[in-house]
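Lab notebook, bench 4. Still working through the backlog of constructs that have no structural model yet. Next entry is a single chain of 257 residues. Request: give me the structure tokens for it.
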Amino acid sequence: MFHHHTTRAARSHLWPATLILCLLPVSILAQTPAAAPAVLDRVVAVVNNHAILSSDVDEEIRLAVLDSGATGGGALTPRRALDQLISRALIQQQIRAEDALATQPPHEQVEARIADIRRETPACVRQNCASEAGWKAFLAAHDLTEKQVENYITLRLEILSFIELRFRQGIRITAEEISNYYNYTLLPQYAPGEPIPALDRVSSRIQEILLQHQVNVLFDGWLKNLRKQGDIEILDPSLEAPPAQHGAAYTGKEASQ
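Model written out:
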């Protein structure tokens, strides 16, 4: 016969498990009447005890519409999106371990970068994002919010500042490289008749993109070492990138803002 009575000692062993259940995020599981729990979200990777959710991957893919061709062509796949999220989490943790305040971008800089995106990113130009109505329609069409975009840009600028302070020394981007990217990568994204930003208006952003392409090489060994140390665990095998692809710490995509 099962007895409901428990001693104080027994209860002391039971309460941690109860507490853990209470602390589980309600966004992970939703109990439907007369049915098994429905999974609303799930952890797909863990980076130094930081969980990356399936919804984070989905959001990363939606936010890719703000890019200006820095993905190297083609849609952002879930596997590539997760690898970018892992890389970003590692860099964020490095920033926090050093001096986060030194890389925090001012709000005015974030607003200015978003304004540039609205005026100049090809996908935004086609939907007239420069106007408030066009911007709201664009966000709705891609299931994004202004806050998500603001957070996205803030983090990119924070990481760029970190790279500027610590890793850029010795890297030089020439005017010829900027011109080639403008002519052969950016311009082909605009349809005939669409307004095209002048080179001098976008040269700084192109420089950022090219800078990150080179920074990727510097980060590669660092990320590989972190993976070897067991800091990263991918829980969804379908999102595991081939070993040769690991190590792209900070893609040009993330600098395209």
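Notes after review: The chain has one domain: 52-255. Residues 57 and 85 are 8 Å apart (CA to CA). Flag for follow-up if needed.
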